[in-house]
Amino acid sequence: MRRTVLLLLGALAAMVGVVLLGRLDHDRRYRTLMTDGDAALVHNQPYRAVEAFSGALAIRGDAMAAYYRRGEAYATLGQDFQAERDLRQAHTLAPDAPEPFEALGRLAERRSDWPAAADAYAHAADRLRDTDARLLYTLGLAHYRTGALPAASDALRRALAVDDASAEAHYLQGLIARDLGNTREALAALEQAIRLRPSFSAARQELAALYRTLGRTGDEIAQMKTLAAQDGSLDRHLALADSQVAAGQPSAALDTLAAAETQAPGNSRIALAVGRARLAQVEQGDPQALAPALQALERALGGTAPRGQGLALYGRALHLSGDTAGAERLLLDAIRTSPTDTHAFGYLADAAERLDHAIIARDALIALDALEGGTAGPSVRAARARRIGALSLTGHDPATAVHYLTLATTAGDQTPATRALLADAQAQAADAATASRR
Questions:
Q1: Which of these, 220, 195, 216, 196, lies nearest to 206 by C-alpha position?
Q2: From CA 427, how far away is CA 405, in angstroms rounded?
Q3: Quick check: is 404 in a domain?
Q4: pLDDT tens digits for 64-102?
Q5: Is 89 a domain residue?
Q6: 130 with 136: CB under 8 angstroms?
Q7: Which pTM does this prediction carry?
Q8: Is the dihedral of CA 66, 69, 74, 80 positive or negative?
Q9: Mean pLDDT, rounded, for 182-198
Q10: Which of 244, 249, 271 is nearest to 260 (CA)?
Q11: pLDDT tens-digit series, residues 325-365
């Protein structure tokens, strides 16, 4: 009897051993397949990775990691349906894991579905309890691309609370603040981004543009000089020269362009910029700069520089030289040339008004106002509205004159001259209406 019991116990132990060895073998095979799949992904072999992870799932059908990794492999292959299916199954198996949601966010991001990406990243951030600054930045970026600026700002605020040394996060926070109209916050964020990473060209470019908007031309030019020094490209030097001209420093712009000329001799874009700077000198009271301006612009029009800009500036130069009729003809060509230089409409208005072509001048100013939109300041738009109204009155269009002169007075132009023009336009419009009813 005792022998029988011992035999039974031995058999049972053998069976248990076989089961344990089988489980160990399954575990070993599962780990091997997972390792093989990870290695295949690292070596950009997604088909092999799918095969390995599928083998792992055949052994453990409830393995969250295998579903997650196979989902990533499918995503690498561009098989989004299979990828999303596996990633959602991974979430079902491990509801508290952030990784499936992060992968779902990347999947949505790849197809530019920013609302879905933001939703997925938000779920991942919740599971990590806002401890991952990189993830919170990615969430903020997704919100920003959907146009949800307050939500984007909140995500960036949480990201910076975790890692205040992220230049990218400060930069994005600056863009959001700028778009929300929080100029002071935008300046602080962009300046901090540059302090953290002085070579951050995009942040420096945005800061320069913000300085220009605020009229801080010295600060703008300082940023543009740094960009030109860091980059050294022709585009940077041309942008710096443009800023210097806009700031009323055409001589400094010519120095910048002379340095650029040594890098790209005979470049027509440089010639165009030289012509613009020389014209600025003429408008500052230096008539001697007109001849070199015309020469530079002739060279520019003979090259590959943007033709619309070249025609606009050459037309302006002709106007300043006294050839107003020639200027008008050239500027009419300029506004028909694509891409059109916005300045051409203003130059055309000046030339046409000098020739008493009131309706041509008026229509050019209306087009300029439409193109500039809200980028022009209120005082600029009020003055332009008054001018459009006066030209309309000269051109025997009192109804349009009433409209624009009313805009001018509403915008704050309450001068006696403007009010008198409006009264005259209203009287003429009333007379025209009475005559039309007879």
A1: 220
A2: 13
A3: yes
A4: 999 999 999 999 999 999 999 999 999 999 999 999 999
A5: no
A6: yes
A7: 0.78
A8: positive
A9: 96
A10: 271
A11: 999 999 999 999 988 899 999 999 999 999 999 999 999 99
C-alpha distance from residue 327 to each of 205, 301, 351, 418 (Å): 35, 15, 7, 29
* 403 domain-assigned: yes
Q: Closest Cα partner for 257 from 211, 218, 305?
A: 305
Q: What is d(CA 401, CA 413) in angstroms, rounded to the nearest whole number?
A: 15
Residue with tokens 């997604």: 46
CA 92 from chain centre, in angstroms, equals 38
At 4, list the tokens: 């029988």
Number of domains in the chain: 1
pLDDT-derived band at 431, boundaries 50, 70, 90? confident
Is the pLDDT at 19 greater than 80? The verdict is no
The Cα 438–Cα 432 span in angstroms is 10
| CA–CA dist 434, 404 (Å, integer) | 21
| Pair 355, 315: CB distance under 8 Å | no
Q: How many whole angstroms separate alpha carbon 292 and alpha carbon 45?
A: 62
C-alpha to C-alpha distance for 28 and 171, rounded to whole angstroms: 48
Domain assignment present for 409:
yes
Which residue in the block uniquely carries the two structure tokens 């489980």?
23
Pull the structure tokens for residue 246: 């806009």
Q: What is the mean pLDDT of residues 370-384?
A: 84
Burial 128-166 (b: 16+ CB within 10 A, else e): eeeebbebbbbbbbbbbebebeebbbbbbebbbebeeeb
Domain hosting 428: range is 377-438
- For Cα atoms 85, 89, 92, give the angle at the middle one, nearest 5 degrees: 145
Angle at which helix 324-336 crosses helix 343-354, to 10 degrees, equals 150
The three-point CA angle 195-210-310 to 5° equals 120
- Whether the Cβ atoms of residue 99 and residue 72 lie closer than 8 Å to each other: no
Single out the residue of 399, 370, 398 nearest to residue 384, CA to CA: 370
State the DSSP string of 129-192: TT--HHHHHHHHHHHHHHT-HHHHHHHHHHHHHH-TT-HHHHHHHHHHHHHHT-HHHHHHHHHH
CB 260, CB 234: distance < 8 Å: yes
Give residues with Cβ within 8 angstroms of 33, minimum separation 6: 52, 53, 55, 56, 59
- Report the distance separating Cα 274 and Cα 358, nearest Å: 32
Question: What does DSSP assign to residue 342?
Answer: T
Please confirm whether the linkage preceding 150 is cis (ω < 30° from 0).
no
Q: Provide the token pair at 364.
A: 């050019």
